[in-house]
Task: structure prediction
Amino acid sequence: MIYTVLVLLIVLFPLAGFLFPALWGRSLFKKSAGPLTVVLMTFSFLLSAYFAYLYFFEFGYQQGAYRRFLFPDIPWLEFSGALAIRMGAYIDAVSVMMLLTVTFVSLMVHVYSLWYMKHQERYAAYFAYLSLFTFSMLGLVLSSNIFQMYFFWELVGVSSFLLIGFYYQKPAAAAAAKKAFIVTRFADVGFFIGILILSFSAGSMDFETILHKLTTPGSDALNTAAAQTFLGISALSWGAALVFMGAAGKSALFPLHIWLPDAMEGPTPVSALIHAATMVVAGVFLIARLFPLYAITVPGVQEFIAWVSAVTALMAALIACVQTDIKRILAFSTMSQIGLMMLSLGVAKYEAGPVPGYTASLFHLFTHALFKSLLFLCAGIMIHFVHNNSIWKMGGLRKYLPLTHLFFLAGCLAISGIPPFSGFFSKEEILLAAYRNYFPLYVLVLITSAVTAFYMFRMYFRTFWFYNLKGPTEKETEIEVPALIPLVLLAIGAVLGGFIPFGNFVTSDGHRMPFHFDVRFSLLPVILNLAGIFVAMWFYKTKNKRSDIVQEKAWKLYLLLSEKFYVDHLYEFITRKVIFQVIGRSAAWFDKNIVDGMVNLSGEATQYVSAAFRKLQSGKVQLYALYFLLAILALALITILK
Amino acid sequence: MTEPGLYHILTLSALLFCTGMYGFFTRRNLITLLMSVELMLNSVNLNLVAFDRYVWPEKTEGLFFSLFIIAVAAAEAALAIAIIIHLYRTHKSIDVQEAEELKY
Amino acid sequence: MSLLLILIIPILTAGAVLLCKTDEQVKWTALAGSLAQLGVSVALYFLFVRERAITGQESLILFEERYPLLSDAGIFLHVGADGITVGMILLTSFVLAAGVLASWNIVYRVKEFFLLLLLLALGAFGFFISQNLFLLFFFLELSVIPKFLLISIWGSGKKEYSANKLALMLMGGSALILTGILLLYFNGGRTFEIHSLSRVVFSDRLQQVVFALLFVGFGVFTALFPFHTWVPDGHSSAPTAGSMFLAGISMKLGGFGCLKIAMYLLPEGALYFSHIIIVLSVIGILYGALATMMQKDLKYINAYSSVSHVAFSLLGMGMLTQTAITGAVMQMISHGVMTALFFAVIGMVYERTHTRMIQEMSGLMKTMPFIATVFFISGLCSLGLPGFSGFVSEMTVLTGSWEKDSVFHRTVTIAAAASLVVTAVYILRATTKIMMGPPQLPGENAVTDANTKERSAAILLTAGIVWIGLFPAWLTALIKPDVQQIMKRIAGL
Result:
């Protein structure tokens, strides 16, 4: 009971943080919306920290494993039979970890935003949206029912839409918001069909039942579902693949990634929270939730996931090397890192006992949330300082932004996998999982990791070193103290987060799993990463023309990368030319001319016939008399002949 | 010289009717048309009276009907002449071919 | 409480409106009447739930009253309510109250306007509670004439054309319905009573013929493809309240008739034509959505999207599963409230900007934040965002459709689900275009946000969609037994 109340409170505080500013944001909370939501988020975070403590150290660990609990479990909408949307909280190590991560990063971003969004006109609306997002995200990670997850899945989508389009007067922001929503919506339709397939096969929409029925070999549900095929692929594989499509849309995996770079039009703290730390990893979370299904029942789909994520990871990392907008570089790096997390789930083989790849994926999710939001918040300060997003407009910032410099460097080292920063440990686990199960992908991950180190430090050196920017005329403060707290806390997390014995808490079956750490194994990736850093240093540490020369030499490659492999162009062509112009226009034309034409035609036909008939009404009396006479004669004739 | 029989009268009435009809279709003067109509009506009257006299001598309905028709014809004539006069006032003509506003 | 109160209040209000001297009095009287009606409807819901709990037999028609009108010809003033009816009455009174509030700025022939509005609502209320086909047809026709007048007198654009088109198409539909009703009358022992007719066993052939007549007839009202073309023209030419009523109530008359008359009385016909209904409605869904993408006028956008949304409820009916039909009824109610809200907001925008062309508007979020927010909310409801009514009803229809385990049914369900993307595209296209971007309105300083009455109308309807969206269980509980009754008749074959 007490746990139920705790979970409900954790979720309801952010909801209150949305409702109050949303309803009275123009009057009562015009100025106080920020502090109000920060206070509410603090409560939410403290409660989830307390709850996490309770779970991990008090009630969660029973009989040698972390158990699952369903705290509130309320039927919300019943379809038929066992199929129902139930609103519940599925408490296991993963969701508790996510709860903690989401509330922590969200609180940090809320606090940071107090400073960053201070002079915004729609101050209250901003915090309302931020809290709405946090509420939806918490609902998502706690979902006990796959349809409940879809419910919150859409809600995070719309809060993301609202926040990307927050600077709504900028056409680019409006377009980006629209793009993000539509692309993820497209993926969500796949997700929805996938939900239908899985839940009808299992006869339930609850995760618990779905996983139980569809992973027990020889069960009825599994046999019937396996018997149904479509295009030679079993229904379950379709279902699992379609659910993955939803995950890919939200997590910006190739080829549904095109919305994420554009989403950077939103305020920078939003990018930190939604498009780096939490919402975009929802796809990873979803696949992790359904992990046994993928690993046991449909290994073919799992392999597909691994390859898609590998392609995404490498492609995004390559593109990031030529981007100039600091936020876009970070966005591509997010894509790349999410690709790694997903890849780790994709290569993990199901085995008795805890699955290392599973833990690795969630570990990386956790550390990534910390260091990537740190990087974004630093980028926010840099953008705030130079009033521009382009790294070409920055340079030598270390003099003006010494604290930011420190934090940013920590973030870069973490993401580049340099020991002892947090990213090193989680990436190590992913590499290990790939190495054990799927060697070709291990090589890909190694390359991606090295490229990551290169582009991160390209950004770092280009912005903080390279040449000396002309100082601002008026003395600008780097950052105010309240906004400094989140940076410090996140930096601590980014530096030390790796030392958390993650395998002791979050594993695929709840049993504790010790980390194997082998220096020989980690030597190669670290050397490669360092090499990436040194290459970046050679190019960008001092002002020089080396990078320009390379760019001119390999201009074809450069163009391919800066145009993002032309994926956006392809989409542009399909949507604008094919769907809008051809299909939409022809539907409208058909309606206007054919369907409407039929109706008008029937009207015109009536008119035509009546025009023909009215000629009889000539106004000539004698003619009428003649008709009369003829009719009488005809009648007489009929009577006589009859 | 025998007494005229039913057929004689019917023949006469038919001739009268045809005369009226011929007049109605060929003349253009509305007064003439009206007179033609009266001819036709009277031929009908003649029929009625003849049937009454020869077929059902014990009944009087035929006579009464012809009286009705005479009354109605009188009323109709009055109405028609009024219309014709009005037409003359507006059109300065009582040619039926010219009075054709009531079309379509 | 007598169910006839549902009819008496609009009649009394109409009488009172006739006696009013000033326009202001007319408006307040109409508002008072519609609020009283809303109160009675809400009370009816609670009484109904209590009564149903007491009687136990869930699918009963409650609050029945029956007075002879022409008993020799089988015509009775016979009213009664089941769960679906109660839902529809709630919907209608919500839209009525909001419609009156949204028409506050009417200046031309105010008395006649509100009189017609009340008459239209009266027709709808009477239609929903009739338990006698003759009475039902009478009320159906009663609601058509005010529509014609509302559009042709207070409309805009090519209003004569639209009014004629609408009246002719709806009358054409009525003619089919009348033929069907008469066929039932003469083959069913000369009675118009729905209850008696439901016990008659009609031959299969007759059921098929009459079902086709009734379904197409009612289908014209509810924009069944390809009889939907009155919708875009009619909605766009009508005055704000007229559009609200047309889309919010009038189209639901058709859906209600399809379900409660055609399918209920003629289950064999429903079974026979199921595939055709499904195909037509999926075409309607996709085609309506695709056609919406190309529209530039806000009212046309909403009108075509209505074609698409309403087809969802037809799809649910065609699927013939318990869940899908429940979803169909929910969709009717949800779409009624949502589209009324949409049209109300479009009306507000139009009054201020004097244009409905999306390319002529920009940045309304800045100049009229309240209206823009409500516009956005109704858009989100339209694209099926969780938390709003559109989500629950469309998901219920789609989930119910998935129950049918055949390639045909699965394929059409996927096709229908694909329309959700197109919906998102056109809603966001319109929303981002007019709400976001730099404010470019001519004379933007003069533009004011919504006034109290407009706010009340918007809040009333928004509350409706949010309430259904967050707590759908009461609605499903309300309509489930009646859907079960229909399903029983279909399954009993």
Summary: DSSP finds three helices and no strands in chain B. Residues 42 and 94 of chain B are 24 Å apart (CA to CA).
